[in-house]
Specification:
The protein is an all-alpha fold. Helices cover 74% and strands 0% of the residues. It has helices at residues 2-14, 16-41, 49-54, 57-78, 81-87, 92-123, 137-143, 151-172, 175-182, 185-204, 210-217, 234-259. The radius of gyration is 19 Å and the shape is globular.
Length: 265
């Protein structure tokens, strides 16, 4: 399995697609920061808040994260890489786990610009705020702007960034069974984007139903997992990480259950 992971990581490293996606998130993260700085100053109108949100990590990952699954997992069905791996003696479980690990590495890679640029922006001491639409790294930028950087603040920022990345990976882990089930990149992107919109709407209603709130707490879409900041407690970080890890394992197990029964043509 280790050799398969290394081979897929090298293929991803050489891929122009991952470089383009990384370039897109770098550009979007930079423009997001500019909007978050200019809007509270009144230099651009609040009507541009929607554009700033559209460029934020929560919005872009709904599309680009699913696109990665379509490109690197569905693509391996088209080029027979998965078929050859199974024919070469790898079990389906090994194939699924290795593909999932590489997928999560790719998700983390294209999220790096948001984490790095957010950290740099906070280090400037400037004011950033995007109001109620602030989620993920944009939320950190909005809630913690003006913070004085110390060693402890840097550690908290690293913890928040790591937790957010893991939460995104857990949310996008749904794309792994979708990719192996449908084998069509467009379907994976469209279905996940619809799910992200639906969960966003349902999550907004969680306070109206205790049962719904409790159910969502056991998924990376619930609770305040997308709203961690530098002031988030250690226990909340641990809870977000634990829920994300368990959810990822559940998605991989579901994928194996589907994949082991399917015929490879």
């Amino acid at each position: 399995m280790f050799n398969m992971i290394l081979a897929d990581l090298f293929k991803m490293y050489k891929s122009s697609a991952i470089k383009i996606l990384f370039g897109i998130t770098t550009f979007c993260a930079a423009i997001m920061v500019v909007f978050a700085n200019l809007i509270p100053q009144g230099k651009i109108g609040e009507e541009y808040t929607g554009i700033g949100f559209m460029l934020s990590d929560i919005s872009m990952m709904s599309i680009l994260g699913a696109a990665i699954a379509g490109i690197f997992i569905c693509g391996d069905f088209d080029n027979k890489t998965i078929h050859n791996a199974i024919a070469g003696g790898y079990s389906r479980g090994v194939v699924i786990v290795s593909k999932a690990i590489v997928f999560f590495c790719a998700v983390g890679f294209i999220l790096l610009p948001y984490a790095i640029i957010t950290g740099i922006a906070l280090g400037t001491g400037l004011k950033f705020d995007m109001g109620a639409v602030s989620v993920g790294f944009l939320n950190i930028l909005s809630k913690d702007s003006g913070v004085v950087f110390t060693a402890s603040v840097l550690l908290k920022l690293l913890a928040a960034a790591f937790t957010l990345m893991l939460v995104y990976m857990a949310q996008l882990s749904i794309c792994v069974p979708f990719a192996l089930l449908f084998k069509k990149p467009v379907l994976v992107v469209v279905i996940y984007y619809l799910i992200s919109i639906l969960t966003g709407q349902v999550t907004a209603l969680r306070h109206s139903s205790q049962v719904l709130d409790n159910i969502f707490l056991f998924t990376p879409f619930g609770g305040n997992y997308n709203f961690v900041t530098l002031s988030t407690g250690t226990g909340d970080f641990i809870k977000a990480i634990a829920v994300s890890v368990v959810f990822i394992i559940a998605m991989i197990a579901m994928t194996y259950s589907i994949f082991r029964k399917s015929e490879i043509k």
